[in-house]
C-alpha cells in the first residue's frame, strides 16, 4: 500500500465508530496485534523505550525509534502511527524535520504531546509539521495530546477549560484529532467530544467506560498506550521469577503461541 493510500485508510478509520489501537513496541508485537484484528498499528513511546532498555521521556535514541518504525512497517499491512512524544525537538522547525524522517520510516500518523510545555510551542510544531509534510507530498495525521489531566496541571472546571482551549489551539494549527489521557468520566468525555471540534482519543485507564459506551458518546479512538507492554512485562517478570525459583516448564505453555504459529505470523 502506498503512503497516500495508507494515509487515506487511516483517516477513514476516524470518520465513524471507534478505532481501537492496541499499541505495539516492536515488529513482532505489531505483527501479532495485526493478526489479532487491529485495523491500524500505533506505537507506545514508553513501551518502545522499555523494549530497548530505556526509560520513557525521549531517552530512546531517535535512530532506534526510526529503525523500529521501519521494522514495524515492513511486517504489517495496516496503517502505522508513531508516538514521537515532543518530536525530539525544542523548536517547530526541528520538529518538522524529524517528522519527515518518521514519514520516511513508514508512519502515516503521529502522536505529539504538549507535556508541561507551552501550548503555543506544540501549536507551532503542528503547523510546521503539516506544512513540511504537504510540501513533501505526504499526508500525516497528527494526534495532538493535551496533558492537562495526565499531569494534573489544573483541577475541576479549570482543567476542562484549559483542555478545550488547548484543543482548539491545536485544531487551528492543523491537528487532526485530540488525545486527552487520564480523562475517564463519561460525562467529561461527552463534553469534550462536543467542544474540542475534532475526533477525540481516549486512553485505556482505570474507570474508563467500555468501548461500546465510548462509541455511543462519540469518542473516535481508544489507545492502549503502554498497557499491553506493562501487562506483558509483568507476566514476563512473574514467569521468570517462578522459573528461577522452581525450574518448572509447565507455566510456559499457559496462553502461549506455539512455535509453528509464531513462525507463520512472522513470514511476510
Q: Structural class of the secondary elements? A: alpha/beta
Q: How many alpha or pi helices? A: 11
Q: What's the CATH architecture?
A: Alpha-Beta Barrel
Uncertain ranges:
none
Order of strands across the biggest sheet?
A: 1-8-7-6-5-4-3-2
Work out the count of structural domains: 1
Rg from Cα: 19 Å
CATH class bucket: Alpha Beta
Largest sheet: 8 strands, parallel
Order of helices and strands: HEHEHHEHEHEHEHEHEHH
CATH superfamily: Phosphoenolpyruvate-binding domains
Percent of residues in helices comes to: 40-55%
Number of E-state strands: 8
Q: How much of the residues is beta strand, in percent?
A: 5-15%
Shape category: globular
Features:
11 helices; 8-stranded parallel β-sheet; 8 strands; TIM Barrel
Brief rundown of the structure:
This protein is an alpha/beta fold. The chain is about 50% helix and about 10% strand.
Structure, described:
With 268 residues, this protein is an alpha/beta fold. The chain has one domain: Phosphoenolpyruvate-binding domains (TIM Barrel, Alpha-Beta Barrel), CATH 3.20.20. It contains eleven helices and eight strands. The chain has helices at 3-12, 27-35, 45-51, 62-75, 92-104, 119-135, 156-173, 186-196, 211-217, 227-246, 259-266, and strands spanning 19-21, 41-42, 80-83, 109-113, 141-145, 177-179, 200-203, 221-223. Helix 2 packs parallel to helix 4 and helix 6 (119-135) packs parallel to helix 7 (156-173). It is globular, with a radius of gyration of 19 Å. It starts with a helix and ends with a helix. The mean pLDDT is 96.
